[in-house]
Amino acid sequence: MSADRIERISRATQAVDPQVWIVTSRADDRLGGLVATFVTKASIVPDQPRYVVGIAKQHFTWQLIEESGVCALHLITEHHLEWILRLGIASGHHSGPNKLEDFRHTTLTTGAPILEEAVAAFDCRVEAKLNSGDRSIYLLQVVDATSLPELPTPLRYSDMWKSLLPEQRLQLEELHRRDQEIDRRAIIDWRADSLESQT
Ligand SMILES: Cc1cc2nc3c(=O)[nH]c(=O)nc-3n(C[C@H](O)[C@H](O)[C@H](O)COP(=O)(O)O)c2cc1C
User: Fold this and answer.
1) Is residue 95, in this structure, part of any structural domain at all?
2) Whole-structure pTM value
3) Among candidates 60, 70, 61, 117, which has minimal Cα distance to 93?
4) Which domain holds residue 33?
5) Is the Cβ atom of 20 under 6 angstroms away from ligand 1?
6) 99-137: per-residue pLDDT in tens?
7) What is the 93 CA–ligand 1 centroid distance (Å)?
C-alpha cells in the first residue's frame, strides 16, 4: 500500500476513540489480564447480551481464554491508569502465573476473575471465535455483570494518552511498535494461507 494511502487511512482511524478495557481470564490456578481497546458491544437485546473482543495470540491472556473459554471485561476510569501500566506493559508470560496477585478480585458465574475496583465488569463465556491470523476474535455471551451504583465516565483511548507521563508514553509506544511488527507478519501470513486454500 502506498505511503500516501496509509497516511489517509491512519488519519481517518484517529477519529475513532475507543474505550480502554481490562480483559481478565483464568485457567486452573493461572490468572492473567491485559489492556484492550478491541472490545465492542455485539447485541442490542437486553436478555441476549454479547460482546466481541480481539486478543492477540502472543499474549498470556489469550492462552488462558483458549484453555478456559471464559473471560471478564472491565470498564475503568482515569483513576485506574496504574492498572494500564501494570497489565498493559508486562506480559504474564514473564511475570509469573498470577499477574493479578496484587488486585482485589472475586468471581461471579464463569469463574473468570472480576476486579473489584472496576467501574463495571462483564462475566463472559466464549460462544464462537474467528482466527484472523494475528488475533482470535471472540464472540462472547455475557452471563453476569457487576457495576458501581453511580457510573462514572469510562476512560477513552485519547484521554489515556493525555494522562500518561512522558516516560510512560514512551514505554507504551515501544510496546505498540513491537506488537505491530508481530501482528503485521501474522496478518500477511494468514492472508497468504487463505488465498492458497481458495486456489
Ligand atoms: C491502550 C492499549 C490497548 C491495547 N489493546 C489490545 C487489544 O485490543 N487486544 C490485545 O490483544 N492486546 C491489546 N493491548 C496489548 C496488551 O494489553 C499487552 O501486550 C499486555 O501486556 C499483554 O499481557 P499478557 O501477555 O499478560 O496477556 C493493548 C495495550 C494497550 C496499552
Assistant:
1) yes
2) 0.96
3) 60
4) 19-198
5) yes
6) 999 999 999 999 999 999 999 999 999 999 999 999 999
7) 13
55 Cβ closer than 6 Å to some ligand 1 atom:
yes
**β-strand partners of 70:** 125
Report, in angstroms and rounded to the nearest whole number, the Rg of the chain calculated over CA atoms. Answer: 17
Q: At residue 115, what is the residue type?
A: L
Is the CB of 30 within 6 Å of ligand 1?
A: no
Which ligand 1 atom is at minimum distance from the Cα of 99?
Answer: 26
Residue 37 CB less than 6 A away from ligand 1 = yes
Q: Please say whether the dihedral angle defined by the alpha carbons of residues 2, 157, 16 and 126, taken in this order, is positive or negative.
A: positive
Angstrom distance (rounded) from CA 115 to CA 26: 12
Instruction: Indicate the number of domains in the chain.
Output: 1
The Cα–Cα gap between 64 and 81 comes to: 24
Q: What is the CATH number of the domain that holds 97?
A: 2.30.110.10
